[in-house]
Structure formats: C-alpha cells, structure tokens
Amino acid sequence: MAAVNVNISLQFRIATPDDAERIQQLVQSAFRTIDSRVGWTGDEELASNFRLEVRDVLANIAKPNLVTMIAVDKNDAPVATIEVAHRDNSIGRISSFAVDDHYQRGGVGRQVLAYAEDYCRRTWNVEKFSLNALSSRKALLEWYMRRGYQKTGETSPFPREKFSNLVLPEDLCFVELEKNFSEVANGDQSA
Question: Which parts of the sequence belong to the N-acetyltransferase domain (predicted)?
Fold first, then answer.
C-alpha cells in the first residue's frame, strides 16, 4: 500500500445500531490489511484470521459506559471508528480503533485519536487514558508512543483459544500503554 497524503475533513458522531454492519466491515478490513511497514500489522496469518461479529459491535454500542464513535467523510462514508470507555477510576479506555486502509498513512488516525481523547476529557473529565496493542505490532506501539502513550510494563494474555488453528509466537500478548494529560501539560512526560 502506498503512502497517502490525505487532507480530509472528518465529521464525528456516536454510532447507532444502524452503523453496526459498516463498523464491523471497517474494523475487520482494517485489521486484515497487509501493510509494508515492518511491525505494523504483526503476524499476517493472525491478521487474516481476525473476525468481528456484527452482534459484538451491537453489544458494544449498547454498553452504557462505552461510546463507539464513527468518523465519516463528506459523503457519510465511514473512514474510521474508535471506542472509548469511562472506567470507574476516571481513566478513559480506548479500544477497537480502526482506519479504512485507503486512508491510512494520511493523518486520519492522529485526527481520530485526538478527537476521542478530547471527547473523553470534555464528557467525563478524564485526564488519563489507557489502551493496549499486540506485542507483535512494534510499529503501531511506536506510533502510540509518539502520540504521548507510554508502556506501563504490564501485559495481558492473548486469547490463544480463539486461534487454536494458528501457530503463534510464544511471547504474543497485549502491551498496556497509558497517557496522562496532566503530566503531559506539566512537561513530565515526553511525547
């Protein structure tokens, strides 16, 4: 996939059940995209076997402390999606972040992540964010770190039982990252 220089004006809205199928297709397609950047997609076989069910998207849309956002272009075509959750301990949790492969490498991801963080700060007064990424996706982890996230040193297990037909690296796990806006504002954290 060639680098795209996209100057796109996005509109953001909270997803409804009517968006579930489009979100499912967008997320599944984005996670399956083959990318020439070393360490971006991680294990190609794992990526090609990734599945997301519409019922799972609908379940997340219905959760009270989770908001599924969709970014659309001027024609209301979905360009990206991201989920944000408000945790009891005033932490915003970011998940299911996907950008349509036609818009990757053009700044859309940065725009969507910044919007999601701002939404959490305005809506829930959240100053700390957490997320995780697969340990095999080294370039993606570095991308988050350039956005101000830092590794916490914690990991969580990868659900190997869902991919029992694949030979996966023994050390495959989710790497936990956090971003604390109060520390960034005080200059205690490098971006």
Answer: 10-173
DSSP string of 38-57? TTTS--HHHHHT----HHHH
3-state secondary structure of 119: helix
Residue 68 in contact with residue 78, Cβ under 8 Å?
no
Tell me 37's DSSP state: S
Three-class SS state of 72: strand
d(CA 135, CA 157): 10
Distance, in Å, from the CA atom of 179 to the CA atom of 92, rounded to the nearest integer, reads: 10
Note the pLDDT tens digit of each residue in 104-159.
878 899 999 999 999 999 999 998 999 999 898 888 899 999 999 999 999 999 88
Helix, strand, coil content of the chain in percent (nearest 5): 35, 25, 35
